[in-house]
Design a protein that fits this description.
The protein is mainly beta and 437 residues long. It has two domains: 306 residues, Beta Barrel (Maltoporin, Chain A), CATH 2.40.170; 111 residues, no CATH class. It contains no helices and 30 strands.
């Protein structure tokens, strides 16, 4: 049995003495999980249960100077609980054919205290169509979802050194990640399934070929996958994601697809170990509602914020001597999609910006080189009670300023100047010492 506690939070601050503020967001999720294994000559049974409680603090805005005219804002807290029962069996039908099948029954419940905004029936969910508020007492059920998640995989050995693997699995995801890549700061929100938002449901299919080469010196594989997703969540154009008391009016659900192919060659023996891999993958979304206000990108398919078609990774470890190693890694991937302002105009004294289609452009491609020298402890001393390892590393060797996003500054009606935001853009040397008992 395993019990744990996790949390995710961020704080955005403005230290201006007159207009300063603190913005706080947090999720806490204590969990417990129990796993059991029962094995016979031909079968390996696994079963268990797990549960997680989610406490959401969706946003608190606190002005630094109470006399500045800024209002204190606190979005209502939310509570949810997720549980699951699961079981699987792994067995061999023959020397060449291995099968694993399983099922997971999951459930998710949002409960009070809390309130839900109700909108006029038959009309789009918009602030202008707000009708009333429905309140729920402490512990009262707001919305419950459940789903059956089957999975199945087979491995067929073509030769002693090669095999084919195929698999299918269904997954329910009850928390939705909403990311705005055009924001000045990389701020994400997690939106739980509830009164207005159904859980995501994904069906994934995969097939791969695996092979050992040159008497086990090398491993090679190529694998492809296809995933279809229902009830994926994304924000409307111009949406307010932070401190929004009507967040359901700025979020829409639709369909998503993801597919790709990945290949990797690894050297696992000898003085030089390492791997090189390449992946081509796409992540697309389509959100087409009954009206333009309930659609994104006019109902046309667009790349998601995570769509990065090309990715290359190279890593190595070279034994200079019995205790000294030279290691490193290089990574490259296509830049993330973004939506850019293209033009603007003034009407009735208000400046209106025209944006491109959703995620029609991309930031610069990402690439980075890391190097390290490792000095391992002398493992050949029998009476040694621990092993210490020194590591001197250089992160981002050539100081690449990989942009996270692009944002624009400028007064309404004037030329907008683009700026790139890089989370880390410097060469970062470090020295560490670790101990293993």
């Amino acid at each position: 049995m395993v019990a744990g506690y996790g949390s995710y939070d961020y704080q955005v601050s403005n230290k201006n003495p007159d207009l300063g503020f603190n913005l706080f967001y947090k999720i806490s999720y204590p969990s417990v999980k129990a796993d059991f294994i029962y094995q016979t000559d031909k079968h390996k049974f696994s079963f268990g249960a797990q549960g997680t409680y989610y406490g959401f603090e969706p946003g608190t805005f606190k002005p630094v100077n109470p006399s500045a005219g800024l209002d204190y804002v606190e979005i209502e807290k939310q509570q949810s609980i997720e549980g699951a029962l699961f079981a699987s069996d792994n067995f061999s039908i023959s020397e060449k054919l291995n099968v694993e099948g399983g099922v997971r029954l999951s459930a998710f419940r949002s409960f009070g205290p809390g309130s839900v905004n109700i909108y006029k029936p038959g009309l789009p969910i918009e602030v202008s169509n707000y009708d009333s508020t429905k309140s729920y007492k402490s512990g009262e059920n707001i919305k419950t979802y459940h789903g059956l998640e089957p999975r199945f995989s087979i491995r067929y050995s073509l030769t002693p050194n090669s095999s084919i693997k195929m698999g299918y699995n269904r997954i329910y995801q009850y928390l939705h990640l909403v990311t705005n890549t055009t924001a000045v700061t990389p701020v994400d929100i997690w939106q739980p399934s509830g009164y207005y938002f159904k859980p995501q449901m994904a069906d994934q299919y995969s097939i791969g070929y695996f092979r050992n080469l040159k008497k086990g010196q090398y491993d090679f594989f190529v694998e492809s996958y296809y995933k279809s997703i229902n009830n994926i969540l994304d924000f409307k154009d111009g949406a307010t994601l932070i401190l929004n008391k009507h967040i359901e009016t700025d979020l829409l659900q639709g369909k998503g697809t993801a597919y790709g192919i990945e290949t990797q060659l690894s050297k696992v023996t000898g003085r030089l170990n390492g791997s090189v891999s390449y992946a081509y993958s796409r992540s697309l979304r389509t959100i087409a509602g009954p009206s333009s206000s309930e659609s994104i990108n006019n109902g046309k398919t667009y790349p998601s914020n995570f769509d990065q078609p090309h990715a290359v990774n190279l890593s190595w470890k070279y034994a200079i001597s019995r205790r000294y190693f030279f290691t490193g890694g290089f990574t490259y991937r296509t830049g993330r999609p973004i939506t850019l302002p293209l033009s603007g105009y003034t009407t009735d004294g208000l400046y209106v910006t025209n944006f491109s289609e959703r995620n029609a452009y991309r930031i610069q491609d990402y690439h980075r080189l890391d190097l390290a020298i490792v000095l391992e402890g002398d493992t050949f001393k029998r009476k040694r009670r621990f092993q210490g390892t020194w590591t001197f590393s250089i992160y981002n060797v050539y100081g690449r300023k990989n942009p996270y996003t692009v944002f624009f500054k400028g007064a309404p009606g004037s030329t907008l100047i683009p700026y790139q935001l890089a989370i880390l853009g410097s060469v970062l040397p470090s020295l560490s010492y670790s101990v293993k008992f």
